[in-house]
Amino acid sequence: MGKVSTGFSMSLDGFVAGPNEDFQHLFAWMMGGDTDYTIKIGDREQTLKLSAASIEMYDEAINTAGALVAGRRLYELTHGWGGHHPITAPVVVVTHRPAPEWVQEEWPVTFVTDGIESAIEQAQKIAGNKKVVIASTTIVQQCLNAGLLDEIHIDLVPVLLGEGVRLFEHLKVAPVQLDGPHVSIGKGVTHLTYSVKK
Amino acid sequence: MGKVSTGFSMSLDGFVAGPNEDFQHLFAWMMGGDTDYTIKIGDREQTLKLSAASIEMYDEAINTAGALVAGRRLYELTHGWGGHHPITAPVVVVTHRPAPEWVQEEWPVTFVTDGIESAIEQAQKIAGNKKVVIASTTIVQQCLNAGLLDEIHIDLVPVLLGEGVRLFEHLKVAPVQLDGPHVSIGKGVTHLTYSVKK
Description:
- The structure is a homodimer.
- Chain A has helices at 52-64, 72-77, 116-127, 137-145, and strands spanning 4-11, 15-17, 35-41, 44-50, 65-71, 91-94, 109-112, 131-134, 151-157, 159-160, 165-166, 176-185, 190-196.
- By secondary structure, chain A is an alpha/beta fold.
- Chain A has a single domain (4-196), classed as Dihydrofolate Reductase, subunit A.
- In chain A, strand 12 (176-185) and strand 13 form a beta hairpin.
- Chains A, B: Residues 6-174 form the Bacterial bifunctional deaminase-reductase C-terminal domain.
């Protein structure tokens, strides 16, 4: 069974979104490199500028992701990534309500209404041997507390944001020991990959 | 004039002290390496076990530190490091009250009662071309907000502590842009050195 993983751009002071959902500083490294790198969000293509280390990291993320798990809020905020998340994997949405009406039939998305364990289980079935990637902070926190998370990938950004949304909060099982990190140095970002000790 | 710097062991979730001032996990890397490294705290010697990368980092910290700035609380908690801080530099204490009675005459310590700017100024006079190193989180926060901090050194520890004392809080000047980091990979720790952009 594939690992349960997650990846976020995080400021040195721990924020994965700035005040008012601002990502300007957190995502600056995605336009700070030398090489064009085109991703697809829905029907729209977007060309990033990445360093060699960041391309390697991005390629690996896309090649190893078998399913993406998101909370309802993120899914609606991104309008379901227009049916195609940049990581090119099917999406599992953890929710209490039926699918929004705007979701199109051909979109690779599953709505799971019976809790986090069930959502991860279904995502792992979809992912096969590939990774299940958690996209929402609240789901990461639930997975950590339920002992379901295997890997944490952080794109550490050299900025202090002071306020916003923290990735690591509401931890009930602390301390959580990690192995690693594997370190890869991009331009304007330090890629760190940790394993969760079980 | 020497740089104003600071250095902390920090968990991936941003804590520089665990609950109840617990440092077990944050300082584990100091006993996790292969090579003996003896430091002096007051009259007492303590032998750490460090990796080569951590020894290099420690040596540089000791060789470049010209003065240490601490808050009153930390100074009393450590009993003034018995008159000799491991970083082997004179101490400047930011306080509103006179020196504690237990401070001995020959200890290299100055008590500054007229605010943070004055404390940094006096520490820089003591340090000459060497660095002024801030030892207390509250003083780091005040220096960041006053634009006085030049460098941030983080020993990033692979653990999530969930609660405790955060290094980065009460930031009033966000965002603070950083350059770097210089990265050095120790055993059980990732040494990261950032410059504060001015």
